[in-house]
Amino acid sequence: MTMTMEMHAASQAVDRSARANALTLWLIGLLAVACITSLAVGASGASLWNALWESLQGNTLSVRDRVVLWDIRLPRTIMAALVGAALAFSGAAMQGLFRNPLADPGLIGVSAGAGFGAIAAIVLGGFLPASLAALVGPHLVPFAAFAGSWISTIILYRVSTRKGRTSIATMLLAGIALGALTGAVSGLLVYIADDAQLRSLTFWGMGSVAGATWSKLSVAGPLIVLSFCAMPLIAKGLNGLALGEAAASHMGVDVQRVKNTAILAVALAVGAAVAVSGGIGFVGIVVPHLLRLAVGPDHRYLLRNSALLGASLLIFADVISRIVIAPAELPIGIITAVIGGPFFLWILLRQRGLLDL
Amino acid sequence: MLSAKHISASYGQRKILHDVAFHAKGGAVTAIVGPNGSGKSTLLKAVTGEIDHTGVVTLNGVDIDTAKPWELAAMRGVLPQATPLAFPFTVSEVVRLGLASGISAARHELVQHALDRVGLVTYGARFYQELSGGEQQRVQLARVLAQVWDPVGHGKPRWLFLDEPVSALDIGHQLQVMQIARDYADAGGGVVAVMHDLNLTAMFADQVALISEGRVVAQAAPNAVFTNENLSAAYHCTLRVNAAPDSGTFLLPHLARRAG
């Protein structure tokens, strides 16, 4: 039925690119709404409107308003936007690279490596020499997660690259092997962890942007934004890859360069995102999938629209996580899974047998 | 001019092409024929740079192994035997992918022209994955045509490399596609096509390279290559070449009987 709707839409407008461009504008609007909502809503009674009014009149804000709005809600909003954009953009890029709508950044080892790094940091962090521990301080877990994601991506890339050509199929299989291995070692670490560490581990796995601070943002933000620079470099190449590597090459795509750029961008974006927010699922699969249904699979629009929609969705998920059991907070990964899982199932059921998944 | 010298290629340990020489020129349709597994498609993949090979291949004087993908894409389009598509693109979006690569990027009207050329002008909004195999093959041909629409560029021929372009088509569309190739060559472009149908080859090709067991047995005009001896030896069955009654081309086989 989805397919029929899509066909109908396509017959009305052969050129879906115009609709994709229009959608970009709508998504920018949605992101603005999401940001305002996120700044206005929270457990404390601080009012965004009141603060804005005061500022306009030239009055200085109360300390409480300034802390809540400026030091808590604003970095948290930006962090949710960047993480959501990074996850959705990376999902779209990976799906294009692997030519499979169910691919996600886990396939290049980012998630497994990040998870392993985080678990190792949480469980073994206490064994660090005091001087080093003082140096990295509270950033040990993000740093270890980021390092872990990069190490596993580099291992996978080296294993699957021969004579300057990266075999996507080998990368997929090697990723499964490496995932099993890191999973086993992570399991061992979990086994020796104490109760407090287990709690940290569990919460890390469920994801959250609650810990967002300007200092975390200043490290992760530029990395994520930098990864977005890859969009125009890989969009046409990913379109060509939809016809296979040989056909893409014959159409003038430097296939290896597209692979390298996409893998680098995804490792950068997801490594940074997972490091600061833990494991947040479904954004990377659901968002690009929805957008492909709406305006087609052209990556020139899909990548940026995914980033925009992913940003808005994660902001809204974060808002829900703040208010649903206020003043306590749910981990955001629970929200995205609770919304994303059934939603995704519903999409799959609607189009089963119609689209070749 | 396409020139390939001392081409050898292997899949793993198995050598497919043995020191092959092959050439084609602009303004002509050059067919590659031979039995299954003789190395026809492998030769096409070698001269389009798709697989590793020894020897040197030059296209319009450019060494294809050192040229950048976009330089080659501006000179030649390649139609593979089958093209799977990963995402639900529409027909016109698939054809537009051919445009994206360079020389004709800004010429959006070429999408319609190319679809018109393969008789699918009303199919633009349909989903590629819903088409029949033969229709998909024609959409892919339209994509390749859009990529190298003008048969001549900067005084040099552009090229179509077609791997069994009519294998999934009915007789009417076989003739249509071969006529497209013929017209492209008549307008100054070069066409290199892997063919199974020897009759169509005799009707439309200017040059034929007959391949057997990884070696080019003969390369010349069809009536010089298509002899009883050449064909019977290459295809391991008795084949007889006949003159067609009306046009001077010839039809075969008159009598096909397994040897021995």
Automatic annotation (TrEMBL), chain A:
Spell out the Pfam families in the cross-references. Answer: FecCD
Which Gene3D superfamilies has this protein been placed in?
ABC transporter involved in vitamin B12 uptake, BtuC
Question: Where is this chain's protein located in or outside the cell?
Answer: Cell membrane
**Which GO molecular function entries does the Swiss-Prot or TrEMBL record give?**
transmembrane transporter activity
Major location, coarse class?
membrane
Recorded hits in SUPFAM superfamilies, A to Z, give:
ABC transporter involved in vitamin B12 uptake, BtuC
Q: Which family does it belong to?
A: Belongs to the binding-protein-dependent transport system permease family. FecCD subfamily.
Q: What is this protein called?
A: Iron complex transport system permease protein
TrEMBL record, chain B:
Q: Name one Pfam family in it.
A: ABC_tran
SUPFAM superfamilies given in the database record: P-loop containing nucleoside triphosphate hydrolases (SSF52540)
Residues in a coiled coil are none
Report a single Gene Ontology molecular function.
ATP hydrolysis activity
| NCBIfam families per UniProt | PRK13548.1 (NF010068)
Q: Is-annotated flag, keyword Transcription?
A: no
Q: Which UniProt keywords apply?
A: ATP-binding, Nucleotide-binding, Translocase, Transport
Q: What is this protein called?
A: Iron complex transport system ATP-binding protein
SMART domains attached to this UniProt entry: AAA
Q: Any idea where the ABC transporter domain is?
A: 2-238
What is the purpose of this protein? Part of the ABC transporter complex HmuTUV involved in hemin import. Responsible for energy coupling to the transport system.
